[in-house]
DNA sequence: TCAGCTATCCAAAGCGCTTTGAAAATCGGT
DNA sequence: ACCGATTTTCAAAGCGCTTTGGATAGCTGA
């Protein structure tokens, strides 16, 4: 079923049918109704490629599957993010074109997207500090929005980010107010912008309180459960262990919990934990009573917002970059409590 | 940069350039080299839509984001699955077209895929018992492979599945051999085929051992951490609590662990746990020394295999359905041990 | 009745590619 | 030197849609 046969069946020209279906005014209400009914009844849908070729738009948004090069790990927030993005993109008639990057050359994929006209825009995930993808996309003129920002990149570009610095500053201050003095940081890879910023927030808060940050209490790696577990186990074995840990991922926080359990310690009493919580659909931190005290920000909502921004950017490219900074909520659960007395802990 | 300008720049016809680039034999080696070099140097890539329109192939595989209707939860294995699938699809020149289903009408999306010619085939996730999508896709003639099977569907169709029945039978037998008699099942939604089969394997093993399955020890729901936690907590409060739990997801198993911790019990000693493990990249069950005893099967590898199968199906539609049953490994970790003596437990 | 509008519809070009059918160039054999 | 076979190249049609630039029909007012 294509336009031609539909038009013939209706005794109309392709032009008229096309216009009727696309809401142009040059067609009478009666004809439009007739056309729409016939189209619905015969199950006609315009061929995507033909339509795209004629209009010059692919109605597709490019998305590279965000995997870390080192461990072939898929970003755990990807599913929720893409569910959010996809939902709002669909409203504007877009689908997502998903592709993997062979090796590490995401730039090559973007160049190809552009050359092939495969997509109308892209969403950039997990920006690093000084991320070179931004300049590249600017160069080749492919509309894009970044999920996060990139410290060190001066070009104007569109982004939506969580205020990571502020979130981790607040989390740290919160612990300090509870009397904690030795606060550890289990962070993501610090070449990633979000991790870089979180560390900044953490150290700033410590400094502001007159505390020095101890390198031995700061670690950074891929945010797996095991990472949280191993680092916590290690830190608990230190001569002067931390009384609190701030953690960049709920997965690693689960690892922390496991290490505490193994050591026979009670979370929130013997050791306080605050984690960042992306509010993943499959790993809820408890709705009414959160398990972990957390800096919370829905990654799904971020996906929705990025989708809207990109759609707007594509339809009005000259209106300048869209930027938006989201504040994370600090939700208090049962994983934090006052710092244990030194005496008690030694005894 | 399009074919026309490239051909003009080379002083050749579009035909020759197209053929040179697509490896047709009717072009001399010298010309081919010249064309290829010019194309590489000028960064020419054929326009996707134009090529697709001419060839009638979209070089796109449709994939609906698998979300549960009830809780808007994205399937946690989705990221890893799609990473595997995407990798092997890319080798064959395909990308993934990702879309969300508004409401619950996945069939509508497939019909549209077909009518619009948007994709060359689709991957069907999370089949239910008597899944109606299979008949629909058969009807409309869109090539597809199912990730899993659908009990009750008699039509021939292509699928790749883990032997869920066998996996859970073995897991149950393993616990029985360890002396366990009260074995609980924390299962996924049993209208899903995988959960239906797992329960079958579980009850079969119990029956074979002359044990009756106790409804109070079997529960089924979305496999979240919280579900594992709450159900375990509840079961521990029973008059005659289980000494072992079999669980369908590592996320729920983590919830089980939390409940045990809360109750002051030690996993593997006071209560044994076996979980299914999809070998998710972001939630590894420990490589050398698994945390949980588990029935393991890599969902990423499943993605790779499904991709290969679908590509083959598209290129040779008449060769009949492709089916493959994968066996899960039973890996033994420290979450299982001999059943505690009744006396010891009561005391 | 007819010019001048507007409302309605249409033929054909064009999007960038592949592919068919034919022409031109090259070659070996006599 | 010439012919048939083989290579190599090309012009043009076609994929299914949108959109431009008319054409036609139906009205209005004089």
TrEMBL record, chains A, B:
Residues 1-55 form the HTH lacI-type domain. CDD domains: HTH_LacI, PBP1_AglR-like. Gene3D superfamilies: 3.40.50.2300, lambda repressor-like DNA-binding domains. The keyword Transcription applies. Keywords: DNA-binding, Transcription, Transcription regulation. It holds the Pfam family Peripla_BP_1. This is HTH-type transcriptional regulator RafR. It comes from Pseudooceanicola marinus. The lineage of its organism: Bacteria, Pseudomonadati, Pseudomonadota, Alphaproteobacteria, Rhodobacterales.
């Amino acid at each position: 079923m294509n336009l031609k046969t539909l038009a013939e069946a209706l005794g109309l020209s392709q032009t008229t049918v096309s216009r009727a279906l696309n809401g142009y005014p040059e067609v009478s209400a009666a004809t439009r109704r007739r056309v729409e009914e016939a189209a619905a009844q015969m199950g006609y849908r315009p061929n995507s490629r033909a339509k795209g070729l004629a209009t010059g738009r692919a109605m597709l948004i490019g998305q590279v599957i965000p995997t870390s090069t080192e461990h072939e790990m898929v970003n755990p927030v990807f599913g929720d993010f893409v569910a959010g993005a996809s939902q709002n993109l669909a409203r504007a008639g877009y689908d997502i074109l998903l592709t993997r990057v062979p090796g590490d050359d995401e730039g090559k994929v973007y160049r190809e997207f552009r050359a092939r006209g495969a997509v109308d825009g892209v969403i950039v995930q997990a920006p690093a500090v000084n991320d070179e993808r931004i300049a590249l996309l600017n160069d080749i003129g492919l509309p894009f929005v970044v999920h996060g920002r990139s410290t060190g990149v001066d070009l104007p570009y569109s982004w939506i980010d969580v205020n990571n610095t502020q979130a981790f500053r607040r989390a740290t201050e919160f612990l300090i107010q509870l009397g904690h003095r030795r606060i550890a940081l289990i962070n993501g890879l610090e070449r990633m912008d979000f991790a870089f910023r979180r560390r900044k927030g953490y150290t700033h808060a410590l400094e502001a309180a007159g505390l020095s940050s101890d390198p031995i209490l700061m670690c950074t790696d891929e945010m797996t459960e095991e990472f949280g577990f191993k680092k916590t186990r290690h830190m608990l074995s230190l001569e002067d262990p931390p009384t609190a840990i701030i953690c960049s991922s709920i997965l690693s926080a689960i690892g922390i919990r496991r290490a505490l359990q193994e050591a026979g310690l009670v979370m929130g009493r013997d050791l306080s934990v605050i984690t960042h919580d992306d509010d993943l659909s499959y790993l809820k931190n408890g709705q009414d009573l959160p398990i972990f005290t957390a800096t919370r920000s829905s990654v799904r909502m971020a996906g929705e917002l990025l989708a809207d921004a990109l759609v707007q950017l594509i339809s009005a490219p000259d209106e300048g970059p869209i930027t938006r900074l989201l504040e994370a909520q600090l939700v208090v659960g049962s994983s934090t409590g006052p710092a244990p007395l030194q005496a008690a802990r030694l005894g």
